[in-house]
TrEMBL record:
This is GntR family transcriptional regulator. Residues 70-405 form the Aminotransferase class I/classII large domain. It holds the Pfam family Aminotran_1_2. Its cofactor is pyridoxal 5'-phosphate. Residues 419-438 are annotated as: Disordered.
Length: 438
């Protein structure tokens, strides 16, 4: 029996009376590992290094609430009404100004406003992928994107990264192997800046080559860039989209630079693709929330949004420093990690013999949560990796969380030394190298 306050137990799938009714595509829809532990991991005594929640406490809530109040008072009849699936025209113009910071010369007509870039991912997959089509993605890759790809029954082929991001020669090899196997590759999905979860950035010197390889194989590029303005030194990199506008679909978001809960993102697509995206968006939501779009638009025209991004960057830099110094101080030998220069994440490789997925419940019992590496691969790799998100907890909590995590790893190592490898699946094949080891 479920006690009040306890999460309801999930029965075995076979007890679901609707099982025979589900579409085949739902077979790939499974809750992420951290979602399964969410109820426990979100208790206040647990330091969560798991989720990628932005540090909203840095927002000027009072002035924002005044702006939002004025917006409803003066333009409520528009803001609370249906709008177009394409998005609010003024916001689409402002989005072009935001993208110009990374070298993109986009036209407002080619921007489609979405409910977060997650919806952009869903729509792009919906319009391009038939079941069995291949999407190439970095290994590891963003879990929400993998969820969209599997929901449309696309097959994900991972290409490894090194400290400079996606490795062009490995991309070429993967495309060649797909070609030989007669597989239809629809697009390369890539997060070039401050990668989630790997924390690395694609070297500028590799960008043209990656675009050229994709062109030569007739493969579209889907560039997902929610963190591009969060470089800790204020540095930005030329967007892939700026270098090959006709073959890149660009996904942007206000989630990390303003407010994730407003759910406002966008897609900038080649003109013909944009038409299909608007139709797909219309059938999904009719239109993105008008009020939220107008809030973002007003924010961009009345507030110091670039100053706010700087405030965010400084907060994340301080948190990154706390995470890295704690890792250096506490992690046992045999662990490695990269040092991100922007974004939210550190990608950690733990000593051999430890399975981060099997270890997760024990870590949560020790009051620290993280995202285990396997969730970021579609093919079962990543059992020696984990992602630390330093974006949300205070620096002090981050240090404490990393200390607890290191203790759990030490205990696992002692167990492994006494009884053999930790329980859970041990992969027999080679591990895809993490960014810091390749
Ligand atoms: C790489 C990447 N893409 C897309 C998203 C989704 O963001 P949004 O809030 O805009 O839907 C995230 C969120 O964490 C992300 O990390």
């Amino acid at each position: 029996m479920t006690m009040p306050g306890q999460p309801a137990k999930q029965g075995p799938r076979s007890l679901d009376p609707h099982l025979r009714r589900y579409a085949a595509r739902t077979a790939g829809m499974t809750a992420s590992e951290i979602r399964a532990l969410f109820a426990v991991a979100s208790r206040p005594e647990v330091v969560s290094l798991a989720g990628g929640m932005p540090h909203l406490a840095a927002l000027p809530l009072e002035s924002l609430s005044a702006e939002i109040g004025q917006l409803v008072a003066s333009e409520g009849l528009v803001a609370l009404q249906y709008g177009s699936a394409h998005g609010v025209p003024l916001l689409r113009e402002q989005i072009c100004d935001v993208m110009a910071l990374e070298g993109i010369n986009g036209h407002p007509d080619d921007v489609v406003v979405t409910v977060g870039s997650q919806m952009g991912l869903d729509m792009v997959t919906r319009i391009f992928c038939d079941p069995g089509d291949v999407v190439i993605a970095e290994g590891p890759s963003y879990v929400g994107a993998l969820g969209s790809f599997t929901a449309y029954q696309a097959k994900v082929v991972h290409v490894a990264m090194d400290a400079d991001g996606l490795v062009p020669s490995l991309l070429r090899e993967a495309l060649e192997a797909c070609k030989r196997a007669g597989q239809r590759v629809k697009f390369l999905y890539t997060i070039p800046n401050f990668h989630n979860p790997a924390g690395v950035t694609l070297a500028v010197s590799r960008r043209a080559e990656i675009l050229e390889i994709c062109r030569s194989y007739g493969v579209l590029v889907v560039e997902d860039n929610p963190y591009g303005l969060l470089g800790f030194d204020g540095q930005t990199y030329p967007a892939l989209r700026s270098m090959d506008p006709d073959n890149v679909v660009y996904l942007g978001s206000f989630s990390k630079t303003f407010a994730a809960g407003l759910r406002v993102g966008w897609v900038l697509a080649p003109h013909a693709v944009r038409e299909k995206l608007v139709l797909a968006a219309e059938s999904a939501t009719l239109c993105p929330p008008t009020l939220n779009q107008m809030i973002v638009s007003r924010y961009l025209s009345t507030q110091d949004w670039k100053g706010q991004i700087k405030t965010y960057r400084e907060a994340y830099r301080e948190r990154r420093d706390a995470a890295i110094s704690a890792l250096e101080q506490h992690m046992p030998q045999g662990s490695t990690w990269n040092i991100p220069d922007g974004g939210f994440y550190v990608w950690v490789t733990v000593p051999e013999g430890i399975d981060t997925k099997a270890m997760l419940p024990r870590a949560v019992t020790a009051r620290v949560a993280y995202a285990s590496g396997t969730g970021f691969y579609a093919d079962g790799f990543g059992s020696r990796q984990l992602r630390i998100s330093y974006c949300y907890p205070t620096p002090e909590r981050i240090r404490e969380g990393v200390r607890r995590l290191a203790n759990v790893i030490e205990e696992e190592m002692q167990l492994a030394a006494t009884f053999g490898a930790t329980p859970g699946r041990q992969l027999s094949g080679p591990q895809t190298p993490s960014p810091d080891t390749a």
